[in-house]
């Protein structure tokens, strides 16, 4: 697993392709493009701070992974972007806003019929403790 790191001010923070494991308690922030990208990866994403990335905080290409207990907020275009056709589970994260505002920060089937849905309810009401770095 990848745990307790800081991926700060990169082009893209972390890109995982065709792997398994966990991304836990990392700070992924201020990248010029994407914070975290998952492609064909069974990865558990939890307890991370994914914030202020210029384009997207978390981009997923399929429904193999899962995300919970993260802070996903203040990313440029979207906090979470579903680039695939499968449903993605992102239940129990903190998004830094009201449920109505959160829906506009997630790119999924609600914006493009060719994409999979992102399941994000219920949301955390308070921000989790910050990641280690």
Terminal-residue CA separation: 16 Å
Order of helices and strands: EEEEEEEEEEEEEHEE
Mean pLDDT: 95
Q: What class do helices, strands and sheet pairing give? A: mainly beta
Largest sheet: 5 strands, parallel
Which strand order spans the largest sheet, edge to edge or round the barrel?
A: 3-6-9-12-14
Low-confidence stretches: none
If helices are DSSP runs of H or I spanning 4 or more residues, what is the number of helices? 1
Strand content: 35-45%
Structural Rg: 13 Å
Count the E strands.
15
Query: What's the helical proportion of residues?
Result: under 10%
Label the overall shape: globular
Task: Describe the overall structure.
This protein is mostly beta strands and 133 residues long. It is built from 1 helix and 15 strands; from the N terminus they run βββββββββββββαββ. The chain has a 5-stranded parallel beta sheet, with no helix packed on it. It is globular and about 35 Å long. It starts with a strand and ends in a 14-residue tail after the last strand. The model has no long low-confidence stretch (mean pLDDT 95).
């Amino acid at each position: 697993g990848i745990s307790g790191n800081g991926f700060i001010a990169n082009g893209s923070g972390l890109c995982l392709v065709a792997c398994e494991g966990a991304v836990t308690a990392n700070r992924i922030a201020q990248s010029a493009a994407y914070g975290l990208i998952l492609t064909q990866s069974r990865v558990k994403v939890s307890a991370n701070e994914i914030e202020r990335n210029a384009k997207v905080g978390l981009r997923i290409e399929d429904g193999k992974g899962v995300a919970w207990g993260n802070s996903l907020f203040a990313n440029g275009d979207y906090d979470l972007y579903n680039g695939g056709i499968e449903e993605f589970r992102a239940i129990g994260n903190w998004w830094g806003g009201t449920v109505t505002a959160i829906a506009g920060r997630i790119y999924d089937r609600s914006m493009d019929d060719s994409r999979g849905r992102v399941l994000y309810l219920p949301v955390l009401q308070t921000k989790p403790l910050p990641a280690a770095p």
